[in-house]
Design brief:
The structure is a homodimer.
Chain A: H1 14-24, E1 28-30, E2 37-39, H2 41-60, E3 64-65, E4 71-73, H3 74-77, H4 81-87, E5 92-97, E6 100-108, H5 113-123, E7 132-141, E8 155-165, H6 168-189, E9 195-198, E10 210-217, E11 223-233, H7 235-240, E12 243-245, E13 251-253, E14 255-262, H8 264-273, E15 290-294, H9 299-318, E16 323-325, H10 333-342, E17 347-351, H11 353-358, E18 360-365, E19 370-374, H12 378-403, E20 405-406, H13 411-419, E21 424-429, H14 433-443, E22 446-451, E23 473-478
Parallel strand pairs in A: 3-7, 15-16, 15-17, 20-21
Antiparallel strand pairs in A: 1-2, 4-6, 5-6, 7-8, 8-14, 9-10, 9-22, 10-11, 11-14, 12-13, 17-18, 18-19, 21-23, 22-23
Helix pairs in contact in A: 2-6
C-alpha cells in the first residue's frame, strides 16, 4: 500500500489490513533476516509504555529483575523431557564462535527455564530463600515457518517471570496472581477484554504441570493469547536439582512458576482497536496522546494561532500529558490529520483563529466526535476526554466480543461457526483428547481455555459439543493467532 | 571467598578484590556458558538506574528508541572492509535453525551498524528525513578469550546510538554532543571523573572516521573506557547505499555516528568507589539509598523502636528516597550492617530506644562518619547526607586520579610508571604509529586519548615521550581494561 492509496479495508482482507495498518503507523518494518522484524520508534514507544506498566505491577508484587545468558548449552534443554520435545524443533543453534567450532553447540534461548533454574540451584539453600521472585526482560528466538509482524516473529521481545516456592499451593497462588496481573494490564491498559482459564494438556507449556492463559477475541473473531502463566510443579527443579532445606529440617525440591507476555501484545492492540483508517492507540499506551495542530491562512493569523497552540501544548506537557505540537510549515492541516490518525493518536486539538478568539481548542477524537474544550481548564478537559476514549474503546471491545460469543454450542453450530464468522464458542467437553483433536482437524479451532468460574455459562453444558457424551467441563473454542 | 572470611584487600590483589566485591554484593554470578554472566537482581537494579538516567538524556537530545534484529547476515558484515576485519574474529555464528542448516550463516550482533544502516537506506529519502536519531537497548555478543564479570563478557547489555546527518559538521556535532552526555552521566551519576578526547587511528572503532572516548582511572591505576562515540563519516552509508536528496536537488550519502555504553559501567562503578569492605554505590545509582535498622533488646523496646523505624522508612519512601526497612527477626544488627555494607548502601539509619526518646535517627555513612538526624526534617536531612556522599565520592575520585597523573613524561618516566604504579601519563607524541606500538609492546600501555583542550597540560610538550622528535600532539597513556 502507499500512503495515497489508503489501506485495505478490514472487511475485504483482515490480514492485509493488519499489515497496512502496522506499516502506515510505522510501528515495524520487515528486515533482511528471515522472520525477524525491525521495531520502529513508533512501535517501540508503545512497547516502552507496556513495559513500564507491567514492570510496575511486577515490582509491586515483589518481583525483581535480573538477566541470564542468551545462550543455553544444548544439553540443558534435554534435561526436561517434555520441554526439549516442545522446543528442539524451533531453536537456532550457534555452532561456531571466535573462529572455532564449539565443542557443545549453544541454543539461542527459546525460553529461559533451563538456564535460570541452573542458577536457582546455586542460590537456593533453605526455605528462608523462598519464595524467589525473578523477572527478566529479554529477546527470544523461535524459528517460525510463517511469520507476521509482532504476531509471530523469529525473534521477539518479552518478559519472563521465573519463581521458586516452598510448596504447590504457593506456586499455584503465584501463577494465579500473575494471571490476574496480566488480566488487569490487558483490560486497564490495552483496553482489551479477556477471558481467563486453564489450558488443556495438549495446549499447555512444554514441561508445565498446568498452564493458565488470558485470551482476547480480535476483530476477525480469532483469539490471541494475551499472557500466560505456568505452574511448573517440581519438573524443572528435579531436572536441575533445585533443592532446599525445609522448615522442619527435611530436603525438598522447589515448586516453580513461569509467566510471560511479549511484543505480540502490540499486534493484539492493533487488532482490537484499529479501524479502516489505521491503528487506534488506547490513551494509556499512546506514545502521543494529544497532537495540537495550528490552523491559519494568513501571516496575521499565524502568529496568534501559533502562540495559542504552543501555549496549549506547554500547558498539557506540564500537566503530564504526552503531547506533540505539529507546527510543520508547508503542510496542510488535512495532511497532518491523516498522518496522526494513521499513527492512532487518540485526541487531536485544532487551534484556529476563531478558537483563539473564543478561548478554546477544538478537540477531535480518533474514535469519532468533535467538541470544543475551553482553554481555562484545558488539562482537565483533555484528561477527561482521554479517560472517556479509554473507557469507550474497552466497552466497544467487550460488546464486540459478546456479539461474537455463542454458548452451549452443538456440533453443527460449532462447525458452522468456525466455517463462517468465527468467534468464541462455549460448549461442553467430555475431557477426551480425541474429541479435542477431531474438532481441531475439522474446524482449525482449538480449546483456548477451560474458563474460570466467572466466565462460565450460567448453566453448565450437559453434553460434549462433539461426541454428545457427558460433559465434564465447559470449554471455549476459537481459531487463534 | 566466603562471607565469614571477608574479601581480599585491594592492596593484596586488586583483581581478586574486584571479584570478591562483586560476588559479595551479589551483583553478578558466573554462568555455565563460557564467558557469559548472570546479572543478579542487585546488579540489574543498578543497570536499570543507569538506563533510566541515560535514556532520559538521550530523549532530551531528540533520540528515539527502536529495536533491530539480533542476527546479521554474514554478508552484511563484509560490506565495510575495516568493520569486518575488526569484528569477524570474535563473532558467534548461527549455522543451524529450525532443524536445518542455514543457507547463509547468521552472525549474532557484535554491534549493529550494518543491520541498522540497511534499514536507514529504506527510511531515508530526503534531507527532510535528517537528522535521524535512533538508540537501541540490546544484548551484544563478542567471543572474548579472557572474561571478567561486567568488564569483559561474551554477552553484555548496552545501548547503541545510531544517527544519520546531512553533512560532516552535523555528524561531528552529534558525536561531540553524545560524548558530553556520557561525561555528564559518568560524573554526575557514577561520580566518576573522566577525561575526554579522540582516539588514535590504531585505537578507533573498526569502520569509523574518528572515535571519541571518555576514560576514567580506576583504583588500580588502569583506565576504563566509560563511553565512546564515533563519527563514521560516509563509510557505512556508501557500503549500504544510504543516500538522500539534498536541499538543492542533488544526491548524497548520509553521515553517520554511533555511540555506546554498556554494563561494563557497573564494573567501573565498583572499581572507582569500592573499598576493602566491598562495593560503595553512589547515591544517585544506589538501588537502596537508605537502609533503616531497628535496634532493641527487649520486647518493650521492640514495639516502640519498630514503630519509629517503620515511620522513618515510610516518610522517606513518600519523599522519593529508595529505602529498605530491615526488620528481620533473629538477626543481630551487626550482621545486618555487614550485609548492607557489602551491598554498598550509602546510608544506614539506626533506630534504638535512645534515638526514639530523642526524636532522632542515627545516620552512618558507608563512606565513614556517624551523626544523628532529627526525625522532624528527616527527608531533608537524608537528602542532604546523600548529596554530600555523592559529592564526596566524586571529589575523592578526582583527587586520586590527580595524585596518579604525571605530565610531560619522558621515556624513562613512562617506562618506570607503567612498570610500577601505573596511572595517567601525559606526554608528547610525534604522531608516528611506530612509537605508539613500541610503547605498547614495552609497557602494555596504550594511548587512551589525545585529550581535549580542557584536559591538556598548560604547556604543550615539545618532544615525543618515546623517540624525542618533535611532538605534534599531547597523548595520555595508561594500561587499560
Amino acid at each position: 500500500m502507499s500512503q495515497e492509496q489508503g489501506i485495505t479495508p478490514r472487511a475485504k482482507d483482515f490480514s492485509a489490513w493488519y499489515n497496512d495498518a502496522v506499516m502506515r503507523a510505522e510501528l515495524a518494518d520487515y528486515s533482511p533476516v528471515r522472520g525477524c522484524m525491525v521495531i520502529r520508534p513508533n512501535g517501540y514507544a508503545i512497547w516502552e509504555l507496556m513495559q513500564a506498566a507491567l514492570d510496575r505491577m511486577f515490582k509491586d508484587t515483589g518481583h525483581r529483575n535480573a538477566y541470564f545468558p542468551l545462550f543455553i548449552p544444548q544439553s540443558f534443554l534435554a534435561k526436561e523431557a517434555e520441554h526439549v520435545e516442545g522446543f528442539a524443533p524451533e531453536v537456532a543453534v550457534v555452532t561456531r564462535a571466535g573462529g572455532k567450532e564449539l565443542e557443545e553447540p549453544l541454543v539461542v534461548r527459546p525460553t529461559s527455564e533451563t538456564i535460570i533454574y541452573d542458577s536457582f540451584a546455586k542460590w537456593i539453600h533453605s526455605y528462608r530463600d523462598l519464595p524467589l521472585l525473578i523477572n527478566q526482560w529479554a529477546n527470544i528466538v523461535r524459528w517460525e515457518m510463517r511469520t507476521r509482524l509482532f504476531l509471530r516473529t523469529t525473534e521477539f521481545l518479552w518478559q519472563e517471570g521465573h519463581t521458586a516456592h516452598v510448596d504447590e499451593a504457593d506456586a499455584e497462588r503465584e501463577a494465579r496472581q500473575m494471571l490476574a496481573v496480566y488480566r488487569r494490564f490487558d483490560e486497564e491498559w490495552v483496553a482489551m477484554p479477556v477471558i481467563t482459564g486453564v489450558k488443556t494438556d495438549s495446549e499447555k507449556f512444554a514441561g508445565a504441570l498446568r498452564t493458565y492463559a488470558v485470551e482476547a477475541l480480535m476483530q476477525d473473531n480469532k483469539s490471541i493469547q494475551a499472557g500466560t502463566t505456568h505452574n511448573l510443579g517440581q519438573n524443572f527443579a528435579k531436572a536441575f536439582g533445585v533443592q532446599f532445606q525445609t522448615a522442619d529440617g527435611g530436603l525438598d525440591y522447589v515448586w516453580n512458576t513461569s509467566w510471560g507476555v511479549s511484543t505480540r501484545m502490540i499486534g493484539g492492540l492493533v487488532m482490537t482497536h484499529g479501524d479502516d483508517v489505521g491503528i487506534v492507540c488506547p490513551p494509556r499506551l499512546a506514545p502521543v496522546q494529544v497532537v495540537v495542530v495550528p490552523i491559519y491562512r494568513s501571516d496575521e493569523e499565524r502568529a496568534a494561532v501559533l502562540a495559542a497552540a504552543e501555549q496549549a501544548a506547554r500547558t498539557l506537557r506540564d500537566g503530564g500529558v504526552r503531547v506533540e505540537l505539529d507546527a510543520r510549515e508547508g503542510m496542510k492541516p488535512g495532511a497532518k490529520y491523516y498522518e496522526w490518525e494513521g499513527r492512532g493518536v487518540p485526541l487531536r486539538l485544532e487551534v484556529g483563529p476563531k478558537d483563539v478568539a473564543k478561548g478554546q481548542v477544538f478537540a477531535a477524537r480518533r474514535t469519532g466526535g468533535k467538541a470544543p474544550i475551553p482553554v481555562a481548564g484545558l488539562t482537565d478537559g483533555v484528561r477527561a476526554a482521554l479517560d472517556e476514549i479509554q473507557a469507550a474503546l474497552f466497552k466497544a471491545a467487550v460488546e464486540r466480543r459478546e456479539a461474537n460469543t455463542r454458548r452451549g454450542v452443538t456440533k453443527d453450530e460449532l462447525l458452522a461457526m468456525m466455517a463462517g464468522e468465527g468467534g468464541f464458542a462455549y460448549g461442553g467437553y467430555c475431557g477426551n483428547e480425541a474429541c479435542e483433536q477431531a474438532i481441531k482437524e475439522a474446524t482449525k479451532a482449538t480449546i483456548r481455555v477451560l474458563p474460570d468460574e466467572e466466565f462460565r455459562s450460567p448453566t453448565a453444558p450437559a453434553r460434549c459439543a462433539w461426541c454428545g457424551s457427558k460433559s465434564v467441563v465447559e470449554a471455549v473454542w476459537s481459531k487463534a493467532y
